[in-house]
């Protein structure tokens, strides 16, 4: 008797393209070229007016400019550091790095005021969805939030994993077919208070007239309540406000946005995900509150799901060069500078987002590009590559493999667009949270090690931690420049 064993299908792999680092000429951007042109002008003028001695004397001016135009520090050119440092110093001088909420301050129930959000936000009810929308007048967007649950991706077989990855790909592709959708933020975070549900169940079902062994077990459950964490995934969708609604939303406009959100909800369900209902006012306030005050979840507020959350705004925010302190925690935000450039399993982010005992928030921000705009950007990039290549050939320089890889990625994206696929611009942000600055540095070291295991290159953002935290840890579907 013989038996044959069917080969186990291999899981589909994923590969990402290189981060584009092209410039207008020889890899230099516009600002770098302007500074270099000024340096050359000063040097040539000095030579023609005073000869070699004039060149040497003027070297105190043109030499630093030339160095600033052609060198980079931590992946950013010196010219690009100048405005960042100037803005940071200006904000420090005027007290813009600190924000304190007065205890007696009361905002209308329909308004939110968060640090880093100019003009404030307004909450608008969407009755058909039973939800609340977040209206940002200055950005011209309306944001809705939904909590999403999965069904165990890591324990699935390869075929099921492929099916789920394909379904999620269809959801992303559908975004490109809806011009009204500006941005989608998938936010996965670890929050304290994972034992609250267990404690509530135990109190309701096992503590009535319980004998002493049950009471001892209840004490153990109570201890677990304090130390346990839970995973939470939120999807925030920013929809463009229809024209003529810059100052306020009409019922017709809200109905149009509700139809977009209902279609996206159906797409998530079709992708074998389990989205809950769109967040109501309390859920939105609670999600924002726990982003600034993670200990609030551990204090037990989430156990009473009907309790109001009156003040989601942080009581205080103090921004530093590499971190930002909010009510009960200190945060450091990283940018995913490079995704894996070799074939990896779709679950490659597991060491980064599912580390036990680590308080991290991972945000994937996707901005769909219209096909016409995407094609124009790709063809402009190809033209810049061709001009850059011609300049290198005249200078006798050879092109490196990184340039070839960037060009191959552009060709692949153009082929996908011509074949009818969509194009999205992705940004990954990782927020590391800890109770104190010393613990934060230890947590950051562990996060950087986990990023290396996930074959991702991360860079800690500097001079913009408040805005980065707003984009990477608060479910508002905001971008970052």
* Low-confidence runs of at least 5 consecutive residues: 1-7
The share of residues in extended strands comes to 15-25%
Mean pLDDT: 81
Q: Give the biggest beta sheet.
A: 14 strands, antiparallel
Helix content: 40-55%
Please write the string of helix (H) and strand (E) elements.
HEEHEEEEEHEHHEHEHHEEEHEHHEHEH
Tally of helical runs: 13
Shape from CA axes?
Answer: globular
Q: How far do the termini sit from each other?
A: 66 Å
What's the β-strand tally? Answer: 16
Structural class: alpha+beta
What is the rounded Rg? 26 Å
InterPro entries: SCO6880-like
Protein name: PrgI family protein
Keywords: Membrane, Transmembrane, Transmembrane helix
Transmembrane segments: 24-48
Q: What is the structure about, briefly put?
A:
The chain has 481 residues and is of the alpha+beta class.
Give an overview in words.
The chain is built from 13 helices and 16 strands. By secondary structure, it is an alpha+beta fold. The strands form 2 sheets. Strands 3, 4, 5, 6, 7, 8, 9, 10, 11, 12, 13, 14, 15 and 16 form a 14-stranded antiparallel β-sheet that branches. Strands 1-2 form a two-stranded antiparallel ribbon. β12 (324-325) and β13 form a beta hairpin. α4 (196-205) packs antiparallel against α5 and α10 runs antiparallel to α11 (401-418). It starts with 29 loop residues before the first helix and ends in an 8-residue tail after the last helix.
Tell me the layout of helices and strands.
Elements lengths: L29 H41 L1 E2 L2 E2 H16 L4 E3 L10 E2 L8 E6 L4 E6 L4 E9 L8 H18 L5 E12 L3 H10 L6 H16 L1 E12 L10 H20 L3 E5 L2 H12 L2 H4 L17 E4 L4 E2 L4 E9 L11 H4 L5 E11 L1 H24 L6 H18 L4 E12 L2 H17 L3 E4 L4 H9 L8
Antiparallel strand pairs: 1-2, 3-11, 4-5, 5-6, 6-7, 7-9, 7-10, 8-9, 8-14, 11-12, 12-13, 13-15, 13-16, 14-15
Helix pairs in contact: 3-6, 4-5, 10-11
């Amino acid at each position: 008797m013989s038996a044959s064993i069917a080969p186990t299908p291999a899981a589909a792999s994923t590969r990402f393209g290189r981060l584009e680092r092209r410039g207008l000429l020889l890899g230099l951007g516009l600002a770098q070229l302007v500074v270099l042109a000024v340096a050359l002008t000063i040097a040539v003028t000095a030579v023609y007016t005073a000869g070699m001695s004039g060149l040497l004397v003027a070297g105190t001016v043109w030499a630093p400019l030339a160095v600033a135009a052609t060198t980079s520090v931590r992946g950013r050119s010196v010219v690009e550091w100048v405005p960042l440092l100037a803005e940071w110093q200006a904000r420090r001088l005027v007290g813009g790095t600190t924000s304190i909420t007065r205890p007696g301050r009361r905002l209308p129930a329909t308004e939110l005021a968060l640090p880093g959000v100019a003009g404030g936000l307004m909450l608008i009810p969407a009755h058909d969805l039973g939800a609340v929308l977040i209206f940002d007048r200055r950005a011209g967007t309306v944001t809705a939030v939904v909590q999403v649950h999965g069904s165990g991706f890591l324990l699935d077989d390869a075929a099921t994993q492929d099916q789920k990855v394909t379904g999620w790909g269809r959801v992303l592709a559908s975004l490109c077919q809806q011009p009204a959708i500006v941005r989608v933020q998938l936010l996965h975070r670890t929050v304290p208070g994972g034992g609250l549900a267990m404690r509530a169940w135990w109190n309701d079902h096992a503590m009535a007239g319980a004998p002493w062994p049950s009471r001892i077990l209840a004490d153990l459950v109570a201890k677990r309540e304090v130390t346990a964490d839970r995973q939470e995934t939120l999807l925030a969708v920013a929809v463009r406000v229809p024209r003529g609604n810059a100052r306020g939303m009409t019922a017709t406009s809200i109905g149009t946005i509700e139809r977009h959100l209902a279609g996206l909800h159906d797409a998530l369900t079709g992708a074998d995900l389990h989205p809950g209902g769109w967040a109501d006012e309390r859920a939105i306030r609670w999600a924002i509150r726990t982003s600034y005050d993670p200990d609030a979840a551990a204090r037990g507020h989430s156990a009473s799901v009907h309790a109001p959350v009156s003040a989601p705004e942080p009581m205080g925010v103090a921004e530093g060069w590499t971190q930002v302190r909010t009510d009960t925690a200190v945060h450091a935000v990283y940018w995913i500078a490079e995704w894996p450039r070799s074939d990896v399993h779709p679950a490659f982010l597991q060491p980064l987002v599912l580390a036990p005992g680590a308080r991290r928030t991972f945000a994937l921000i996707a901005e769909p590009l219209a096909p016409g705009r995407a094609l124009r950007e790709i063809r402009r990039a190809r033209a810049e590559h061709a001009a850059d290549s011609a300049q290198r050939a005249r200078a006798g320089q050879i092109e490196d493999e990184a340039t070839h890889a960037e060009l191959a990625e552009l060709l692949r994206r153009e082929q996908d667009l011509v074949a009818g696929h969509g194009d999205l611009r992705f940004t990954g942000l990782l927020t590391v949270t800890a109770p104190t600055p010393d613990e934060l540095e230890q947590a950051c070291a562990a996060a950087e090690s986990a990023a290396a295991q996930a074959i991702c290159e991360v860079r800690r953002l500097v001079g913009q931690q408040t805005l980065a935290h707003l984009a990477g840890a608060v479910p508002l579907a905001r971008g970052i420049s």
